[in-house]
UniProtKB/TrEMBL annotation:
Keywords for this protein: Molybdenum cofactor biosynthesis
InterPro entries documented for this protein: MoaB, MoaB/Mog-like_dom_sf, MoaB/Mog_dom, MoaB_proteobac, MoCF_biosynth_CS
Domain of life of the native organism: Bacteria
Name of the protein described by the UniProt record: Molybdenum cofactor biosynthesis protein B
Residue ranges annotated for the MoaB/Mog domain, each copy included: 15-159
Gene that specifies this protein: moaB
Family matches, as Gene3D superfamilies: MoaB/Mog-like domain
Length: 171
């Protein structure tokens, strides 16, 4: 699998979607963390938006982004719990061409060391839609930090060996 890593860093075009009934730009610490972190890593923030936790608004925004040739990755934050208003998995998973099962599994394994058994209430998930990587994480800023620092930072780096997601994303 060493052929899946490149010698040079490839900057990816990334969009960030906050899914929340209560967040607005001024208090969206999770979405802003992801936007700042991806920029610090050398990637490009192509778009950032906030939508309410509504299945069809989530699908509409993601569908717009997956046809945008500049966007190779979508990071969502929020809506992955079990309340009646947590609809991200139901909205997004049906759009996947391929699931990335290991993402949610690894997120919960890492999260267990931070929050114990409460991690079972996370329905973090990921997949590919039209060769766009879509990674859905919980809405807390700490969960976004866990996902970014311990999984996504490496897996979105084209130099990560033995493999990473970069070769699987649209050019």
């Amino acid at each position: 699998m060493a052929h899946l890593a490149q010698a040079e860093f490839k900057s990816l075009g990334i969009a960030v979607l906050t899914i929340s009934d209560t967040r607005i730009e001024s208090n969206d610490t999770s979405g802003q963390y992801l936007a700042d972190a991806l920029g610090e890593a050398g990637h490009r923030l192509i778009d950032k938006n906030i939508v309410i936790d509504d299945i069809y608004q989530i699908r509409a925004q993601i569908s717009q982004w997956v046809i945008n040739p500049e966007i190779q990755v979508i990071l969502t934050t929020g809506g992955t719990g079990f309340t009646v208003r947590d609809n991200t998995p139901e909205a997004v998973s049906i759009l996947f061409d391929k699931d990335i099962e290991g993402f949610g599994e690894l997120f919960r394994q890492i999260s267990y060391t931070e929050i114990g058994t409460s991690t079972v209430q996370s329905r973090a998930l990921a997949g590919f839609i039209n060769r766009t990587g879509v990674f859905c994480v919980p809405g807390s800023t700490n969960a976004c930090k866990t996902a970014w620092q311990k999984i996504l930072l490496e897996q979105l780096d084209s130099r990560q060996k033995p493999c990473n997601f970069a070769p699987h994303l649209k050019a």
